[in-house]
Amino acid sequence: MIMNIFLTTALLAAPPEAETPSSPSSVEEQRAGIVKKGLTFLRDKGQDANGAISPRVGSGVTSLAITAGLRNGLKLNDPLIARGLEYLESKIQTDGGIYTSDRLRNYETCVAIMALAEANRVAGDGRYDTALKNAERFVRGLQIGAGDGIDKADPHFGGVGYSGKERPDLSNTAFLIEALHAVDTPSNDVALQRALLFVSRCQNLEGEGNDTQFADKVNDGGFYYVIPTEKVDPSTSERYTPNGGLRSYGSMTYAGFKSLVYSGLTKDDPRAKAALKWISQHYSVSKNPGQGLAGLFYYYNTLGSALEASGLDVITTPDGEQTWRADLVQQLAQSQHPDGSWVNENQQWFENDPRLCTAFALLSLAHAKGESK
């Protein structure tokens, strides 16, 4: 269920670097064409005989590809989906998690929940109800502050990391929020509200939920990846500003904004307003603002999912209005390889893997279909 609480707000951004198709019908025709090529690549060249896609990095890419395929109209009997689901089912653990590595058990289970929830929707028969219930219980138990005695005063309260209760980060917490949203968790749910506190503490915004030392050092409304608990030395990393603040960047700001939407905030909330202002000032489909090409395809997915969830079709900036769907489709059409794949020239976060990048690209293109309802 997509929440359209931001539909009346017009926002997007700076003109794209490439000319976009002239009409909604031509945008959709172009989108459908590159989606078909991308799905063919995953089916014919990206999937192992056992249904796995890029298993060297765990089961996560398989889950992302299944979700992308189903959201782009594939049926459950399509080989890409059927084989992928069989592989995913083989990774269901006795603790309810769906993962191949303890180190990635939150991330892998959350994206598996999204895939199985999508399969349930298409099937219409509740075939994955039990697996989803057990997986949901599992990821809820990984959240910091869930039955571990940690209270709201701890800056990590409400967050979750790759494997659970180690150092939490905004990306994994956003995946938890999206997984709970995928199984129709209401926005006032205790786990979502715990997560909202952590998400708010990852926003560069003074006085609106961020009570950490970093709240006022940048104060631009964007989001960052982790909340440091050690003393910050700005000379040690580009992620710090000279005054010891944490730089906002694109993929985390869209992940944070989407998390605000799924946690029930409206367009009038100061956190949402500040995030949208940052988005309007830094909009791009050619780079991940603040990171360049690093994590570009992850960024495309967070951009698409956040803007679709918010109900925004157009965002207005000082440079004018932009329709993000047309921009994204045009950019991905230009960067698609002849074999139907996408790959990032920047290798950070495994984006030198065309299977991962193609799954992210197809997810973003699913969000770019049509207009917000």
From TrEMBL:
Protein name, entry field: Squalene cyclase C-terminal domain-containing protein
SUPFAM superfamilies per record: Terpenoid cyclases/Protein prenyltransferases
Gene3D superfamilies listed in its UniProt record: 1.50.10.20
Organism, scientific name: Symmachiella macrocystis
